[in-house]
Structure formats: C-alpha cells, structure tokens
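Record C4-dicarboxylate ABC transporter substrate-binding protein, 326 aa.
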Amino acid sequence: MTTVTRRAFSALAATALAAVMIGQTVLPAAAQELKSLHILAPSSAGSGYDQLARAVQGILQEDKLVGAVEVQNVAGGGGTVGLSQFVTTKPRHPSALVIGFALVGGVLTTKSAVTLDQTVPVARLIGEADAIVVPVNSDIKTMADLVERLKADPSAVSWAGGSIGGVDHVAAGLIAKTVGVDPKKINYVVHAGGGEVLASTLGGHATVGISGYEEFRAQVDAGQLRALAVTGEERIKGVDVPTLKEAGVDLAVMNWRGIMAHPKADEKDRAALEAAIATLVKTPQWQEALAKRGWIDSYLPAKEFGEFLAEEQKRVESALKEVGLL
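=>
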C-alpha cells in the first residue's frame, strides 16, 4: 500500500483542482448560485430581441455561468404584450426580459398600463445601428435617390419596419423631417420583427426596409439586398456601407438593448443574474458575438443602466412627439 503524506496530498489536490479549472471561467460566487433562468424576448423569432436573448443563452450555458437557460418569444404591441406577460405572470424560475428602444417607444405609443418602471434594471448590453435597404433590382441606388422619391411623394415610398414607436419608426420619421418632408406623411408599415421586415422587403411588398443591420446582413452579402446607409454615427466595422451623414442626411439614430429582472425576483437571484451578466461581457465568446453581429459594446451595470433608462424614456418621448407619433 502506498502511503501519502499530508503535504503530498495537498499538492496532489491542488494539481487536480488546477487541471479541472484549466479552460474554465472563474465565476463570482453569486453567479454560481443561479441554477436556471427564463429569458423573455418580447418579439418574434429572428428579431433583434430574439438574437440577443439567444446569444446570452448560449454563452451563459457554454461558460456554465447559469444552469439551464430557456428563451421564450412573445410578440405583439411593440413589445408590450411580452412586457405585460412578464410583469403579471408569476415566474417558475428566475426570469429576465430583453428590452430596448422599441419597447420604450411601444409603452408610450400604446399607452400601456404596464410600464418598464415595473421591472428592475440588470444591465444594458449593446448598441446597434439600423440599416436602410432596398431589393437589389430596385431603381433606388443611393440614399439621394430615396430622398428624391420622398420629396416627390412621401406616401408612394412604403417603409417596412418594426413596431410603432420603435427605433425603425423614429428613424424613418426623422429622416423625412431632416430632408424637409412632413414625417406624418410617411407610409410606414408595421411588422412584428426583423424576420417579417426582411420577407416584406425581399418580396417587393415595400419600397424600403429599415431594421438592425444584422437582420439584413446575409441577404446583403448574397447580393439580394442593397444597403443604402446605416443610421449610426460611424460605419459598422467591416461593412462598406455609408452612414446617413456620409450619404447626405445630417442625422444619427442608435438602437440599444438590455436586460431587466422580474419585479418579484428576490435579491439573491437578482444579484446572481447581475453577476452572471457582468462575467458574460468579459468572455471571449461575447466579444466574438459583438464582432459577428455588428453590435456595439454598450455595457452598463444595473445602477448606471437604471439612470440611463430614466433619461432615455424622456428622450424617446421627445423624439416621438417630434415625428408626430404622440
């Protein structure tokens, strides 16, 4: 029989522990306590909310930041149907909601009885520029061509975009206003999510599509859609598409998305979720997701996100009034 001294045993144990931890993320203690998570994306599959929810789900599970993660899609009402269900349903597991500019606008334009003030900020995660696209066979070749059409007859230019009061709708209205067209006269057609916007634009049912660039990327790369401009202050890295300002429209509009906790979440679960997300944004997988999808890293922890959200609700309300939606 082999005899192992206490010192030798301690060395062996330390070696074994180090071997187990190689290649694994070292987690905050709080993050290890969250055994499961339900994420509600208040829109259809393939939408920007859904894409973020699925990316977060994959990394949380892959890096073992959380146990089982379930994503649920609930579309309708500019996100307010999902918001209402999230707030009023008693969750079986710790529960989170993906939100963004569109849901802030949806609450205002639908006069929703349930508001974002009934949820609890966890983190802002990303920023994203919209893209303005047309079918590749369209005779609209540039933003200047689109502006010319708008000035000639704004009602003849149909815009396929997301929910009423969302960033797509606001951006379309502000583009019209910036080029001297009454934003109340634009022909904006509401769709439940980016997948429907894409289908409508590809099918020729709309003159122009407006949504997050990632939702059009594959079709732009395949030569089925032509991107006229992106709405951010800067070009998307690796994408040869001008900004609105470069294309002659003096405007920049950015979307953002983040995570909220259920109002009835206990402090331990909420702290565990905040810790898990704080760890997630430092992982190589998250950096890969940002680069792959053209997302801008806009992480803010809970306190700062709550302060941003309070101000953002005021800014969005002002923008909606500016384009005649309130």
